[in-house]
Amino acid sequence: MKLKHLALLAPVLLGLAAMSETPSLLTWPDLTSRSRPTADATVSYGRDPYQKVDVWLPKTPGEHPVVLMVHGGCWTTSIADRTLMNWIASDLRGRGIAVWNIDYRGVDRPGGGYPGTFSDAAQAADALAANAARYDLDLRHVVAVGHSAGGHLALWLAARPKLPSGSALHADHPLKIGHVISLGGLPDLEATAASPDNGCGTEVVAALIGPATPAHPDVYADTSVPRLLPLGVPVDLINGENDRIIPMRLGTGYIDQATKAGDAAVLHRIDKTGHVELIAPETAAWSRAVERIEAALKR
After folding, report:
1. Which of 103, 178, 221, 222 could disulfide-link to 167, CB 3.0 to 4.6 Å?
2. What pTM was computed for the model?
3. Which residues, including other chains, have CB under 8 Å from residue 15's CB and lie 6 or more apart?
4. Which is nearest to 289 in space by CA: 50, 20, 85?
């Protein structure tokens, strides 16, 4: 082939090379247009329509190992609710693992923000202990799994024993979390608020934690997980290399802080993975999550 023909083909060849390097990522409709599995039961822990938990129960008899699941959606109910997690909840149920899939009032709901969103997550978690006998749930190794903003809440639930006694969110006997798995989470609220390139934006953090008041002068002291380190709980962060919503530095930054504080924290970076793949049951990211869940449950 003559050099002038190669020159004409060069832009095409470069375009094809670029396409081959850019993975085809799942979109939200790719997930949400699927037939949606349904839970086995629903538990209310308050009067609001979003103060509910869906319970997913394996068909096998005996006490079931359990995952406490927390959906994301930028802490905003109009973006997502607990049903976004139904596909991976169903996958775990099929593997013999029960799922306690919680919902909570987002910042756009009456009573959401501080302290409501946090107290909802806490009450939903503590309702697991209150209902364990009813549903034959084994609480010896509860694994909290959270996606996106739910990754923050899953970590925060594990941090509840570290909350200062003067906090409006303090509880004497919070549910004990044995392991946390954050799927593309936002673990550090201060870093999120300083990162305009995160998919949730920065204003939502202010709506979540509320303004400083004389009673709550440091708004991150009982809301942002790094302030409560060390958690004393093993943590796995599973992040997509191609996630356009959660910058990777939010994961690496948290791991640095957690390990310096003495926690066992590991970041799993999954190639050819965006944000949706993290909660789609056929993906490499979810396979890694299942591996870590089963290990944490001592199975």
Report:
1. 222
2. 0.92
3. none
4. 85
